[in-house]
Design goal:
Elements: H1 3-31, H2 40-43, H3 63-80, H4 82-87, H5 89-92, H6 94-117
Amino acid sequence: MDTFEIFFAVFVLVLLAVAVPFGMMFANWLLSPQTQLKNKVKTDAYECGLSKVVGNASERFPIKYYIVAMLFLVFDLEVAFLYPLAVGFKNGGWEMLAFLMIFLLILEAGYLYIVRKGVLNWSKISDNIN
């Protein structure tokens, strides 16, 4: 490939990356009803059925939400490691099966530890951050 062709492709990509968002914002401005901005009720904040928002953004969440999020990330990442094993399973033979069983046993041991500690039981987890 010629240097011009490479730089031309990059130029077109950058041009599209800039033009598409600005085009969408212009289309939104052009097609949106302008009378909506004059109505006070339609511009008020509305979240989860509450007409007035209570609290502020720096309010603390209970620790149980963070625990569940971290557990989701850990187990989701471990499941992502199963895909290469599934792809290479046909060519792996008995060694691949043994590796898969060891990996799944470690995964199950972690899950049983979590269940035994009561992390997934919402009534046991305290709402305090102590």
